[in-house]
Specification:
680 residues, alpha/beta, seven-stranded mixed sheet, five-stranded parallel sheet, 35% helix, disordered N terminus
């Protein structure tokens, strides 16, 4: 053997401050079993995210790519990627060229998203994993289910959709998530989290019923696996003999953004270890383990139990965390470096060829935003971006002189919380998206990020409400669907004063159907004993936060859209709202169940008349529409309903009595404010 060659396993350094030592490599006595050992030449040491890796200059060329000099530079050409239309083409690429292919794929994703906007960071983090999966497994016969699927852009490029990436998240174009109608390589659609393991297990069970032998793989992140549904699926999988492979993609980005101040601190937990991964997944070692277990079947029951306990103890000691998944019935593998492509392929091949029906969980460590310096440096790792300049990373933005509704809510809540220590804020892994990152900066002890766990968030809020606290539960409209039973059973039926703050209510644009907040008026409006408000502008949002803070005898809802406020000039011109003498973040409580008339038809008007009853952020459109109707000789009144429940019936009946036609305007599905207006 070359004196510069070392056979071993990469392990993490004991601490960030410790230097590389003999613990960097564990020499193995299993010399005959070198299939899963990586060969490392020359002791050039590099450190990335706590993982120590020895490399040689020869290994840091374009063919190896992962930690090379040009890692953060775009390739001059995409000669390998240009040869690939589908995974069958990928399998023809020489194995030692796959790292260069991954480099080309990473920059293809960067180029594509720079032109369309979208979810960049997550896709950059799974480049090597995507290449490895399609190289090792036989897709589409083998099913790969991407949880959430915002990280599936490289998957789309490798499965026949590269030429359409310029249509990403556009009308008639590619979905920003996986979509069954889009490709046979998308076996399950997504957009919401924590669904992949359940879907993959269902596929695996159907496969076994049908007598097939294909693989079913779920790729789930460390954020999505915090969702209770993921554990329900693992609990089920562990009790059945249906082989399903779960890949836990751990990038330490549990919430968006990670680093938000809250009662739990700023950093998600998760100290990872890599070195035993290859050992635990090598076919030879698995054979030894299998033989040992077979031999134990001939031992007395006491000896069997002792052998099983010793086996689990040993695995738990060396992997530092696998036993939890083992207790759920999984064979745990990892953690391993998800950017070491050669290592990753070897692990996947071993898992693919592993006999038996026991479910397997592979724990990989990746870096969100990897390979693009601006993303690596950003707090949110460029999770979701607008169109951007590749050279600088600067994103395009439509300049607005007004704050977003999200920021307006957060600032208003901070004002109230400063005077009322009973006010607490709760979110489900979206502190940035809901504005609670601002609240957490000011009141970290009163800000709770529960992870992707909407069910828990709702009932947690209900529990706090029983003790006299004032929980504001801020969740995207589309995500609250996941906690609906808790809304009904734990909050509404008990009339607990939980304040639901529904961000992204209405249409949200290019994130598509899975993220439109179009159903909340219908699914909340059918419930008893609840107040539902929808502000038409930023001033009204402030007023409704003040109103919700005062409601102590029942739950309440404030729903508002994505986007920015209208500005003082528009409020004064179109709504007749008096300008403030000085800016304020705080509103005033308004009478519950009372709407307001924005425009009234002339008392002496003759000819046809129309009353437009608006709920929510379409009020400006309603006023402009009324002006056009007036020019056409149609006398028009415009009402801002403010409340869906309780509805201002007196005002609605008055409009019905004095107008020929009445129209409702809202952003939502059937079952919104139109239902109580026309079918009281």
């Amino acid at each position: 053997m070359d004196s510069n060659m070392i056979l071993g396993f990469v392990s993490p350094s004991p601490s960030p401050s410790s230097s590389a030592s003999a613990s960097t490599f564990l020499l193995t006595p299993f010399q005959p079993y070198t299939k899963c050992l990586h060969t490392i030449r020359a002791p050039t040491l590099q450190k990335r995210k706590g993982l120590l890796v020895r490399m040689n200059a020869a290994e840091s060329g374009d063919s190896q790519g992962a930690l090379n000099q040009g890692f953060n530079r775009a390739p001059r050409m995409t000669t390998l990627l240009d040869q690939i239309n589908y995974p069958d083409d990928l399998k023809k690429v020489p194995r030692n060229d796959l790292q260069r292919l991954a480099h080309e794929l990473r920059w293809e994703v960067i180029k594509s998203v720079s032109q369309t906007g979208g979810h960049l960071g997550a896709s950059l983090g799974v480049i090597e994993l995507t290449v490895a999966l399609h190289y090792v497994f036989n897709t589409p016969d083998d099913r790969i289910v991407w949880d959430v699927a915002h990280q599936a852009y490289p998957h789309k490029i490798l499965t026949g959709r590269r030429s359409r990436m310029n249509t990403l998240r556009q009308y008639g174009g590619l979905s920003g998530f996986t979509k069954r109608a889009e490709s046979e390589y998308d076996p399950f659609g997504a957009g919401h989290s924590s669904t992949s393991i359940s879907a993959a297990l269902g596929m695996a069970t159907a496969r076994d019923f049908s007598g097939k032998s294909n693989h079913c793989i779920a790729v789930i992140g460390d954020g999505a696996i915090t969702g209770g549904m993921a554990y329900e699926a693992m609990n089920h999988a562990g009790s059945h003999n249906n082989r399903v492979i779960v890949i836990l993609n751990d990038n330490e980005q549990v919430s968006l953004p990670t680093g938000t101040h809250s009662a739990s601190g700023t950093k998600p937990s998760g100290a990872l270890s890599e070195y035993t991964s290859r050992l635990l997944t090598s076919r030879s070692f698995m054979d030894v383990r299998s033989v040992a277990k077979q031999m134990s079947s001939f031992l007395p029951s006491e000896m069997k139990q002792m052998a099983a306990q010793f086996d689990e103890y040993a695995r738990g000691m060396v992997t530092q965390g696998g036993t939890m998944f083992e207790e759920l019935g999984f064979y745990y593998v990892g953690p391993i470096d998800g950017h070491n492509l050669e290592n990753l392929i070897g692990v996947l091949e071993n898992v693919r060829d592993m006999p038996g029906n026991k479910p397997i969980l592979i724990h990989i460590k990746t870096e969100k935003g990897r390979g693009y310096a601006p993303a690596e440096a950003a707090l949110d790792k460029y999770h979701g971006v607008a169109k951007f300049d590749i050279a600088s990373g600067k994103q395009q933005s439509s300049k607005s002189s007004t704050l977003s509704y999200t920021a307006i809510f957060a600032k208003a809540l901070i004002e109230h919380a400063a005077e009322d220590r009973k006010i607490v804020a709760i979110t489900a892994a979206m502190p940035g998206g809901t504005g609670l990152s601002l609240f957490g900066d000011r009141f970290p002890a009163r800000c709770f990020d529960v992870g992707i766990a909407e069910q828990h968030a709702v009932t947690f809020a209900a529990g706090m409400a029983t003790e006299g606290y004032k929980p504001f539960c801020a969740i995207y409209s589309t995500f609250l669907q996941r906690g609906y039973d808790q809304v009904v059973h734990d909050v509404v039926l008990q009339k607990l004063p939980v304040r639901f703050i529904l961000d992204r209510a209405g249409l949200v644009g290019n994130d598509g159907p899975t993220h439109h907040g179009t159903f909340d008026l219908a699914y909340m409006g059918c419930l008893p004993n609840i107040v539902i408000m929808a502000p038409s502008d930023e001033r009204e949002l402030q007023n409704m936060i003040a109103t919700a803070a005062e409601i102590d005898d029942m739950p309440s809802v404030v729903r508002y859209p994505r986007g920015n406020g209208l500005g003082e000039e528009i409020l004064e011109k179109y709504f007749g709202t008096a300008r403030l003498s000085e800016p304020s973040n705080r509103g005033r409580a308004i009478p519950i169940g009372k709407g307001r008339v924005i425009k009234r038809k002339p008392n002496d008007a003759t000819g046809p008349s129309v009353a437009i009853i608006n709920l929510g952020a379409r009020l400006l459109a309603a006023v402009k529409c009324s002006e056009q109707l007036q020019e056409m000789g149609v006398n028009t009144s415009v009402v801002d309903a403010r409340f869906m429940k309780p509805l201002d019936k007196e005002l609605i009946l008055r409009m019905a009595d004095t107008h020929d036609v009445m129209i409702t305007l809202e952003e939502g599905s059937i079952g919104g404010v139109g239902s109580p207006v026309f079918y009281p």
